[in-house]
Design goal:
70 residues; mainly alpha; 1 helix; rod-shaped
Length: 70
């Protein structure tokens, strides 16, 4: 059975480290993407809530005419 040489083992370890580093970069990137999406959705929700508050205030402040029918 062929055993890997010391140089080959070192090379495999460095390749594995490089792979893990790349995997970590992708995980970090995906995490950043999720945080950005969450922040965007939060801002949009706040905009919609403010819009809704302004609509309710506009309705509450709208003049109402009452017509008496006799």
């Amino acid at each position: 059975m062929d055993e890997p040489t010391k140089g080959e083992v070192g090379n495999m370890k460095s390749q594995l480290s490089a792979f893990n580093a790349k995997a970590g970069m992708y995980t970090l990137k995906e995490d950043d993407d999720m945080k950005a999406k969450l922040a965007a959705m939060t801002r949009r929700l706040e905009e919609l809530e403010l819009k809704r508050i302004h609509e309710v205030q506009a309705v509450a402040e709208a003049p109402v005419q009452v017509k008496l029918v006799s």
